[in-house]
Specification:
Helices cover 62% and strands 0% of the residues. It has 4 helices and no strands.
């Protein structure tokens, strides 16, 4: 979104909509206004989207794994009991 795009939206949104939430967001907004961002090709966007989707899926899968540890004597007790 370019600076002129923001100006087009300005009548629709109030001034607070354009206030950065923190210093990092302020730096990003200023960088966009300076024209330092470039569009990504559709192929690159597709590749990045697939990569991020896979990372998210792996993150969820990792959270579903459970690690259980037993002391040796406790493990023997459980084996004998079952």
């Amino acid at each position: 979104m370019t600076n002129s795009d923001y100006k087009k939206l300005k009548p629709i949104l109030d001034d607070k909509a354009f206030e950065p939430l923190d210093e990092e967001e302020r730096e990003i907004m200023e960088s966009v206004e300076r024209g330092e961002w470039v569009p990504v090709s559709p192929e690159e966007r597709k590749r990045l989207s697939a990569m991020l989707f896979e990372a998210a899926r792996n993150s969820i899968a990792a959270r579903e794994m459970v690690s259980v540890e037993f002391k040796k004597n406790r493990l023997r007790f459980n084996k004998r009991r079952s």
